[in-house]
Amino acid sequence: MRNLIQILILIFTISSCKSQEIKVNYRNIEINIPGDPGPWIMHNNNFYCYFKTDNDRFSSGSHHQFYILGTDGQVKSQIEVPKKLQTFYYDLYIKNDTIFTTEYYDKNTFYLDQISNAWIETKKGVDLYYDDVEYSVFSRDFGEWGAVTWFKDKSTNQQYEISAAAPIVNKLKNSYYITTGKSILKIDDPKKLDLSIAPYNYKKAVLDGKFFREGSNSTNRAEILLKSKNEYDPNPIFSFTTSFVANDKLYHLYEDSLYNTIGEIKIDKLVPIYTLKSKIKPFHWYYDTRNPIQSNAYQTVQFRTDKDNIYGILEINRANVSVIYFNNLYHEPVFSEKEMNDWVKNIFEYYYSNFKELTLEQIEKVEKELNATDLTQKHKISNYLIEDKDVETPRIYRKVEADKLRLITMYYYSESDKKIELIEFEWMENRNKKLSINDLDASDISNERRNMIYKSKFNWLSKYLREKIGKPASTKANKNGVEIIWQKDNLSIILEYSKNDLDLTIFRH
Predict the structure, then answer these.
(1) To the nearest whole percent, how much of the chain has pLDDT over 90?
(2) Which pLDDT belongs to residue 23?
(3) Averaged over 181-201, what is the pLDDT?
(4) Which of 209, 347, 454, 474 is deepest in the core (most CB within 10 A)?
(5) For residues 281 and 301, what is the distance between their CA atoms, to the nearest angstrom?
């Protein structure tokens, strides 16, 4: 009996030691921000984050906003994103205690000035993954032609290469460790790797954009500590997320089909130390490559969950790991048909009565009070009805009406005095991007239902405008639709209906 108790105490002691090796804590933070998350990082107890919002029917890509959040999830600053960063792919990283962003294709790079709260353009970003007093480590992925990682010896400027894509580089006891999604390599002396016959060149790769070569297949004189058995599977059930140094050991965060686990390699085997409590999906954006490691001790990794509005960051600070969940409470407002009809009627009367003096500031206040979604574009948009006037790209807002329609309002204003020149109300079918396949199929074949929705709204508008303004100046009807025009008080009002669209426009002559 005594021996059994001693064995149980020993097992408990070993288990306790293991659990104390890595300390993991969990936090939940509520936020309220429109859009979906792009690259995020945590630095100095703040969260720096991009959000991508949709552009509805407009031609440009997603619109990006940038926020600084406090540890309570409250927005401390919203910072305008420069036009050169309004693209699909960009990264977010820390260098010399400063926040940087580099866009993927042209390597346009900005740093965040936190005094002026502005992005400032600087030298184009280099493909640097790791840097210490001895070596700079660069990496490039050439797609189907493979990838290369270069170690540049700072004392000789010689470069040595190895086959590794998007490496996470750690240094421990004078050896370098490279973690990729499928393998972990140990390099005791980078000078023993293959000498690069096509070394990384900043001018060719970044400034000229003409650097291309085949990837390396060599891991000569690097020790392969572990390699995934499903190396060539594009959707592996096992993969390494990252590695980090703590307690003078190298730990690995890895994912299998069921769990995310922190472990270490012992005698060619991965030994689990801690399994995260809940199902999360850590990931690296493939274009967000410059921020995996800071000072060999700190890094943050984003993760998803099975709920679109819940996501987060893993903060790894040596042996302390924080799993930080963000619950985004934001939902685009949805109005009933009656609410939207009442709003259109009231706001049209206000606009019509005050059109001569109506300003951009006034319409912005109207839309913000309704918490409408801002869809204003960066590129020039014109309207043929006022093509002779000097107008800016319009302010554009969206409001959702139940499950049937969305209303897009466009406000064209003069560049000189910000006076409104034209307002367009456009009703369109509300097609939620998160509808199921069955719902989308059903909406595709509901032409008759769509026509009834537009026709009903047209009849209501036509009746209201006749009561408000009086008899129209002209009415034109054909098989494709109807156009009704009123002209009064130096204003033109046009109501247009077709099977796929409904527009109400008011503008000054």
Answers:
(1) 69
(2) 95
(3) 96
(4) 454
(5) 10
Residue-wise DSSP of 271-334: EEEEE-SS--EEE--TT--S-S-BTTTEEEEEEE-SSTTEEEEEEEETTEEEEEEEEE-----E
Looking at the chain, how many residues does it have?
Answer: 509
pLDDT in tens, 423-474: 999 999 886 544 333 444 444 445 666 678 888 999 999 999 999 999 999 9
Residue 467 three-state SS: helix
Whether 495 and 458 have beta carbons less than 8 Å apart is answered as: yes
* Distance from C-alpha of 291 to C-alpha of 95, rounded to nearest angstrom: 9
Cα–Cα distances (Å) from 417 to 391, 396, 414, 421, 456, in that order, read 10, 19, 6, 11, 38
Task: Give residue 347's identity as a one-letter amino acid code.
Answer: I
Joined together, the tokens standing for residue 440 give 């989308």
> And the tokens for 181?
């999604």
CB 414 within 8 A of CB 421: yes
Residues with Cβ < 8 Å from 33, sequence gap 6 or more? Answer: 51, 65, 67, 75, 328, 330
Angle, helix 360-369 to helix 337-354, in steps of 10 degrees = 160
Closest Cα to residue 93, out of 380, 264, 291, 237?
291
Query: What DSSP designation does 80 have?
Result: P
Helix 337-354 to helix 447-469 angle (10° resolution) is: 40
Q: What is the pLDDT of residue 129?
A: 92
Cα gap 276→219, rounded to integer Å: 32
Residue with tokens 């790791």: 130
Reported as type and span, the H/E element at residue 105 is none
HEC states along 113-166? ECCCCEEEEECCCCCEEEECCCEEEEEEECHHHCEEEEEEECCCCCEEEECCCC
Say if residues 165 and 133 touch (Cβ distance below 8 Å).
Answer: no
Task: Say if CB 52 and CB 35 are below 8 A apart.
Answer: yes
Cα within 13 Å of Cα(347), Cβ side: 20
User: Could you tell me the two tokens for 153?
Assistant: 């010896």
In degrees rounded to 5, what are phi and psi of residue 95? -145, 125
pLDDT in tens, 9-37: 333 334 444 456 899 999 999 999 999 99
Reported as a pLDDT band with limits 50, 70 and 90, residue 3 is very low
pTM: 0.82
Token representation of residue 341: 């009809």
